[in-house]
Amino acid sequence: MANTTFTGPVRSENGFQDITKNETTGVITSNAAYGKAIRGGVQELSGAGAADTTNLITELTTAAGAAAVTLADGTTAGQIKIITMVVDGGGTATVTPATFANGTSMAFADVNDTVCLVWASTIGWVIVSNSGATVA
Fold first, then answer.
1. What does CATH list as the number for 42-135?
2. Tens digit of each residue's pLDDT (9 = 90 or more) over 76-99
3. Who's near 134: CB < 8 A, 6+ residues apart?
């Protein structure tokens, strides 16, 4: 199993942490030296379907035409969900959360369109970061 260390601004209360992704399993983990570890898998979703709530990240791949993607309510307050487009085959993926604090949907049209969401039990999924996606 090969591990790749991501470099970047991953900050905790006690400073920066190293993040690794196991290329075989897709599991992402932070070093736990500074506190709680981040751990989550990667879902690869091609075309229409459901972005799951069991993996930290959903990577979207589109073909020509529109792809409708749903996102169920989170399971625990503070749950994080990252959705990103990794392959643009000419279509737009529209993600519609069951409960969404910021509107009704998010459209991912280009590679690297990325949204980071946090589940807030009383108001639903909340966008904490958006790079390129269109929120409606």
1. 2.60.120
2. 999 999 999 999 999 999 999 999
3. 106, 107, 109
